[in-house]
Structure formats: C-alpha cells, structure tokens
Design brief:
By secondary structure, the chain is of the alpha/beta class. β2, α6 and β3 form a beta-alpha-beta unit.
Length: 225
C-alpha cells in the first residue's frame, strides 16, 4: 500500500468541462441553449477521440475539441464567428476545477498517497489547467496520452501509465467520472473509482464495475482515509 498511486482523470473529474457555459451564454443568449451546446460539444469531443483512436489517426486532444466545436456550431445552426470560437477555445483552456477538488486533494496529500494527473489532454494543456485551477501542487506528475499517441480507453494507455509510474497494477487506482475510462482501467487490470457526479448517471452495463463509487472527491478522500 505504500506504493499506491492515484491517477486522476482531468476533464470532467477534476475540471468542470461545463465551466464554458457562461462564455457560451454570452454568445448564445439563452441559458438552456448554452448548456445543450456545452453537453453536445463535450460528447462530440470524446466521440472524435474514440474515432481517431480506432483509426490510428492520433491528433492533439485540443484539435478534437476544436473540430467538435465546429461541428456543433453547424449542427445547431448557431453561426459562431471565428473570433467567438477562439474565445471559446480560450475558455476551454482555462476551465475551473470542481468545488470539491482542492479540499479532497489536500486531504489525500496528508495521507502521503501519490497523486498524478492522467489525461487525454496534452501535458502542456493539463499543466495549464491545473495551474489555473490552483491544483498543480497536489500532483507528482502529469501523464498524457500524447506520449503513446493513443486515447483512453486504449489498453496501451493504461499500460503506459503503469510503466511510467513503475507501480504494480494492483497498486494503481484510476479516479474518473467517465465510465468509459473506469471500464478501460479495470479491463487493463487497474483498480478504479467512479466519481458519479450526477446522481441520475447510469453506469455502463458491461459486467465490469468500478471498485468503488463515490458522489464526489470528498467521498473518495473519506474512503481512502
């Protein structure tokens, strides 16, 4: 247990991807339209990363984000200008942390558990997000999929995580709010905690379950303390 490492997903787990809604609302006006745009943007971003992973056509995650933005703009007939899109991409590069993140990470740091950030985003993008959100001090390292040019949930990504950390699978925990990430980690032999940020969110019925389910990161800290 002394070598236990927690690998935290970033987008959607530590950092609120819907933190861009306020920026969207200034351009779209209607709050419900802004939230719908944000949800569909995030879904399409992930879809593009999955598709590129299957195709073996890796690109930086930021490109998936921008291509998804362009698609949803067309799909909803919004007509964002290039300037609007640049502002939105800037907002995505400085998304806020969830309210529970800092306190929970501080509690985990007191236990001596090693925490790393583990993301589909580039190392530079993740470092910027964590620094801007005031979380960078709690992470010993950032492990980005760019180093293997694959995307989660490719098994090679989780194998690289273990190799990079030099930790046994049984001592490696993925912490994620994304069910696909949890399933990918468990399939690769890691432990995984699902952060069920929405009480209405179902888990995929694949017969692969998280080791634990918590409603927020404070619940994770309670479990591990």
């Amino acid at each position: 247990m002394s070598r236990r490492v927690l690998a935290f997903d970033v987008y959607g787990t530590l950092i609120d991807t819907h933190g861009v809604v306020a920026e969207l609302q200034t351009r779209l006006g209607d709050p419900s339209t802004a939230m719908e745009f944000s949800r569909r943007w995030r879904d399409k971003q992930l879809e593009y990363s999955f598709r590129r992973g299957l195709m073996g056509a890796y690109v930086d995650f930021a490109r998936c984000t921008r291509e998804a933005l362009d698609f949803i703009d067309r799909a909803l007939g919004v007509g964002l200008s290039d300037t609007d899109k640049e502002h939105l991409m800037g907002a995505y590069a400085s998304l806020p942390a969830f309210a529970d993140a800092r306190t929970a990470l501080a509690r985990l740091a007191e236990t001596g558990i090693t925490c790393v950030a583990f993301s589909n985003g580039s190392r530079q993008a993740v470092a910027g997000l964590l620094e801007g959100a005031g979380l960078s001090e709690y992470f010993a390292d950032i492990v980005s999929v760019e180093e293997v040019r694959r995307f989660k949930p490719d098994p090679a990504v989780y194998a690289y995580l273990r190799q990079r950390l030099e930790v046994e699978p049984g001592d490696t925990w993925l912490i994620s709010s994304n069910a696909f990430d949890v399933i990918g980690a468990r399939h690769a032999g890691l432990h995984a905690a699902w952060v069920r940020r929405s009480p209405e969110a179902p888990f995929d019925s694949w017969g692969i379950d998280p080791d634990i389910t918590v409603s927020d990161l404070e619940g994770l800290a309670d479990y591990l303390n």
